[in-house]
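Hey all, quick one. A colleague (J.T.) asked me to put the pyridoxal-5'-phosphate job into the tracker so the inputs and the structure tokens live in one place instead of scattered across chat threads. No bug as far as I know, just bookkeeping. Sequence used:
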Amino acid sequence: MNWREYVRKVDPYTPGEQPKSENVIKLNTNENPYGPSDKVKNCYSDLELLKKYPDPAASDLVDALADYHKVDPGQVFVGVGSDDVLGMAFMTFFNSDRPILFPDITYSFYPVWASLFGIPYRTMALTEDYSIRPEDYMQENGGVVFPNPNAPTAKLLDLTSVEEIIKANRDRIVIVDEAYVDFAPEGSSALPLVDRYDNLLVVRTYSKSRSMAGLRIGYAIGQKELIDCLQAVKYSYNSYTMNRPSILYGCAAVADEDYFRETISKIINTREWFVKELEELGYEVLPSSANFVFASPGNMSAEEVFLKAKEKGIYFRYFKQPRIERFLRITIGTDQEMKQVVQFLKDNCT
Ligand SMILES: *Cc1c(COP(=O)(O)O)cnc(C)c1O
């Protein structure tokens, strides 16, 4: 008998690198360069607040988000980043012996949770042009999950197709991971479908559009019955997931809609400019509805560009993986950062 035989074997998720130096152009983990709203920065928190446990229901934050999205507070579940919310949702809803379905090229945490929780899964190949094909998700399954826009492709699936997937799976849960939906055209979110489909869970995060990746807030919206199921699992695992500063700052962030809109439109404008520049340099760029682009250099390998850029303190994300090894995932930073990137590429990587 050896304890090593009884250890849970996992093959963990590998997050993008977080360089220690501040003196780099960091475009590898889809953070938002503008930082939280002044309403958050000015939100005084006396550290005395840390002596008490937080409200296990995080009801101030739940109420603020319910109000913001015009749903009932009973329809909102909050967690420590959307990774926590998604992990909890996998544990709660994907509990059959039929395989869950997700795209072959997608957020690489999905197969990790599936393995951790012993959930069988099958991946559905994206089309030649890296789109999700709705028909692939209309077969026997134990649940469906996909990001929209997808990552790392940045491609959006239109809402009609999203609804078709939900409709075809009325007796199992469909999770739509909307980490990047705020950068997509108006009307792309599945949130308005929540009232009509009791099998739909929409997951959001503060990490990208709200520029608060360091705080760790994510949430899910669905019908009350789904949220109750998530709560039951959460309270069986850790009642106090949301710390008191997160609840406080999380409420302050949603109160500043102007700042939110302003930073998002800045990023979209920068993205459109950057895509044109890349195309002029001979790069192939997939149509992006996110705060990053997925681009393939014309005359050099993506890996080579990735390494050269890193040497110069410019961090992109590169996935050495079948079907996508010719691409780089580049987060949209400030105008100034992106101009430096274009100059670097012009000088070294065309
Ligand atoms: C960034 C990301 C998440 C996780 O974000 P959190 O920081 O944990 O909220 C979830 N899904 C996708 C597709 C992402 O890109």
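Adding what we noticed when we looked at it: The two ends are 58 Å apart (CA to CA). The pocket of pyridoxal-5'-phosphate is lined by residues 30, 81-83, 107, 147, 151, 177, 179, 205, 207, 213, 218 (CB under 6 Å).
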